[in-house]
Structures are given as structure tokens and as C-alpha cells.
Amino acid sequence: MAKPVVIVVGADKGGVGKTTVSRTLLDYFSANNVPTRAFDTESPRGTLKRFHPEFTEIVDMTTTSDQMKIFDTLNSAGPSVTVIDVRAGLLSPALASLRDIGFLDAAKSGQITFAVFHILGPSIASLDEIAETANFMHGAKYFLVKNFINDTQFFQWDQATYNSYFHRIKDATELTIPKLNEMAYEQVEVASVPFLKFVANKGPGEEAANYSFVLRGYVRHWLASVWSEFDRIKLTDLVGSGKSSTRGEK
Amino acid sequence: MRATPVYIICSLRPLVGKTLIARLLSEFLLLKNGTVAAFDINLKEPSLLEYLPDITEAAEIDDTFGKMALMDRLIINDGIAKVIDLGFHAFDEFFKMTEEIGFLKEAARRGVSPIVLFIGDTDRVSARGYPLLQRQIPSSSLVTVDNEHVVRGELPPAFAQGKVLHIAALPVFLKTYVDRLTFSFTEYLRNERDSSTELHQWIRKNYFSFREIELNLILQGS
After folding, report:
1. For testing the chain A interface, which of B60, B61, B63, B67 should be mutated: the one with the most A CBs within 10 Å?
2. Interface confidence (ipTM) of the complex
3. Is the pLDDT of residue B200 over 90?
4. For FRET with B59, which of A104, A141, A222, B44 sits at 20 to 30 Å CA-CA?
């Protein structure tokens, strides 16, 4: 049986694009035929579930029963990849919980592949988040995501300061999510479909839709850029599917 | 179903005859097909909209709304040929957008045939723009317009490699005549009984060149 893979997407700050990154990950795995399940911790109503309802479950990560729902089922016969979209402010407590239940030790010993996509905001507070998160990262793949989708400017960071935080985490990898045209982003929101379905001009139930060709083009171009970042970090290798992904045009 | 042509008439320079060629081509297509849809993204220069208001719409690509309004029309294979008079100021933005949204690929998928008519000039700006088009547009869909009124003498060799459409220069008095807002090339052909006049021959030669481009398009599609 394939080794379970858990990918946590989170930040301690709200509005930095955690769910957007989670959605691109789910689309990426879907395009690469990697069976995936997702948990949306924005309880009681989840944004991720709105876009990927078929394999997303809303959970409250602060409760033991929901922690069991996620982690006690990792070795079951279901999908080997679990994506957890951790809601704002919950990343550090979630990692602390994972440490407490011995999950981080299991990752360290190689029983589980564990990756964290830490979405950074533009403020210096995000750098403090890195320092805080670093304490939990032994045995995990750590990705720092600079998300420009909502026109975030990172210029206020002093590069030397950033580097001093960045290098605290061994093997940390930096990713950049480019900006998506605002209207295209808004239309996908309104359509409530995965990016991939929007590009394919399909509605939530696979029915033919009538999205703007221009907006679909912008989303396709943007998604290809995001996925090339995932290709660069060899995400499919990380989750054990080992496929080279060349589906930018899919 | 036959592919729907989308003619994009462009240059990186103002006043090189884009609107003249857009007028000629629109009138030719109107004569041949009975219908044509023209779009004017050229409002900072002499405007196609002023010459052919019945078949021309103003279009803008400054914002996403404008891009959607234009491109969502252009991508439809409805059998109505489209002509775009693309102003020099919109050149970069237009082709950046078409590249980003994958216009050429989607057009091929939907049976739409974009044909770019690039008006060559001897300046450095044109020399910069042409390779940009060559990277994006297949050579079968890229035509350099050698407007004799603009390029006095030989076209730069870089432009002359692919298809070239030669437009002969008109004498100044005829140029002034055809530049009148009320002038129609097709009406002139219909009403001028003397087919040996210079203008008559000039229009017929250009219509013939456009017919050649259309024929090539049919051959490519078959």
C-alpha cells in the first residue's frame, strides 16, 4: 500500500489565499490522476467544499473526534493523499496538535509523508509565523508560498531579514503563485467550480457552461504557471505518483 | 463548416494605412459574402468607425470587460468574417492578451482562422514587432503588407520572408479622394463605367489579392 501523504495548507493570517492554493493543489492532483481527499477546517461552512464538494469534508480540527476522522483513516484503503486546508489562525495550533498525537514523529520516521504549504502574507508578522512554524518542521517538507493572487506586494520585506527566517528551516522551498486577473478570479468564485472545470467550460455537474473565453484563457494561463511551480518542486514525486506532469494545456 | 476568418490589421506605427486596408478588406468581404463584422480599436487615429459605421463597432482592450466583449465575439465560428483595425497603441496589449488566453489554439479548435496583416515599415519599432508576431502566429496566418505609400522602395528583408501583400501607392489626388468619409470602394467599382481608370484598377487589384488570401484559407482548411 502507498505511503500516506498529508499536505497541510495554512497560515496564521487570514485572506492570504490558503483556499486558493488548496484548490490549485486539488486540481493538480486531479489532472495527474492522484486520488485525493480534502478536509476543510473552516467549520461549519467551508469554502473549499464549495468548489470540490465530491471529496471534501468539513472538519473542526480543534475537536478530537474530527482529528480522529482525519488521521485515524490515513492507512485505510482510500486515497493516499490528504489535503487539509487549515483555516486562518489555526496553523500553529494544528501543528502543535499533530506533534501531541505523535503524527510529526511518524513523519520523521518516514511512515508518513508530510508537507506543509505555508502561505505568506506581505507583513512582517508572516516572518514571525515562519519562525514559529519552524519548530514543528522536523521530518516535514516545508514550502513557503508567496501568493501574489490578491496583488500582494512583498516589497516591504527586507530580503536579508526574510532570508534569516527562511534559512531557519532546513530544506525549505519557496514557491510563487502569480496574480490571476481579478475578473477571472471573481467569475470562478461565482461559478463555484474547480479551476479545471472552469477552463474546460463545464458547470458543477459536468454540464456545458458558457464562461467567457477570455476569462477561461486567463485562468488556463495562470493555472499552467501555478502547476509549473508544482512541477518544479516535483510534487507528484513527493506524493508517490512519480508521473511527469505536462498537462498545462489539459 | 468553413472556417470563419478573423483579419487583424496591425502595425506598431501610426498613419501607415491600417484603416485604409481595413476599409478595403471590409468592403471586399461585404461585397463577397454580403456580411462582415468590423471592430475598431483605433480611436486615436483616423477611424474605421467613421468610414463604415453600419458594419463597425468600437472596441476597447484597456480592461477585462473590453477584452471579453471583443474576444468572446471573435472566437465564434458563425461564418461571418471579422476585421479588426488595431491601433498602434493597442498592439502590445492585444498580442500579449491573445498569447495569454491561448487565442490561436482555441481558434483552431473552434474553426476560426485568424489572419494577421502586419503593415511593415522600415523603422526600428516595426522591426521589433514583427518577430513578436512570428513567435505567436503561424507563418501561414501572417501576412506582411507592403504599403508602397509607406515603404518607398524595398521592404526590409526580414519582413519579406513570408507572405507579402503589396498595396500600390495612389497618386496624392486619388489618395485625397478615397480618404473622404463618404467614399466607398465597391460603390466606385459599381458606378464608374470606365474600368481603365487608375483607381478602378487599384481597387480591383487589391480585391483580387484579398480573394487570394481567402482562397488560401479555404485550401488550408480542406
Report:
1. B67
2. 0.78
3. yes
4. A222
- Domain-located, residue A190: no
Which chain A residues are closer than 8 Å to B105 by Cβ? Answer: 249
Is A45 or A191 the better-scoring residue by pLDDT?
Answer: A191
Give pTM, 2 decimals.
Answer: 0.82
Check CB contact of B61 with chain A, cutoff 8 Å.
no
Contacts for B45 with CB less than 8 Å, ≥ 6 apart: B14, B15, B18, B19, B87, B88
Are B81 and B33 contacting, i.e. CB atoms less than 8 angstroms apart?
yes
Nearest alpha carbon to residue B27 among B186, B133, B151, B201: B186
User: Residue A76's domain spans which residues?
Assistant: 5-180+222-238
Chain A interface includes B97 (CB < 8 A): yes
Looking at residue A110, which CATH number applies to its domain?
A: 3.40.50.300
Q: Is A100 part of a structural domain of the chain?
A: yes
Residue B137 CA neighbour count, 13 Å, CB half: 26
Q: Return the CATH fold of B4-221.
A: Rossmann fold (3.40.50)
Choosing among A213, A218, A220, which should be mutated to test the B contact, i.e. which has the most B CBs within 10 A? A213
pLDDT in tens, A94-125: 888 888 888 888 888 888 899 999 888 766 56
Is residue A187 in a domain? no
Q: Which residues of A touch B67 (CB under 8 A)?
A: 214
Structural domain total, chain A: 1
Residue with the bigger pLDDT between A119 and A195: it is A195
Amino acid at A55: F
User: Can you give the residue ranges of every domain in chain B?
Assistant: 4-221
Judged against a pLDDT cut of 70, whether residue B76 lies above it is answered with: yes
> Residue B74: closest CA among chain A residues belongs to which residue?
A213
Of the candidates A181, A212, A221, the beta carbon closest to that of B72 is on: A212
As a whole number of angstroms, the distance between CA B108 and CA B114 comes to 9
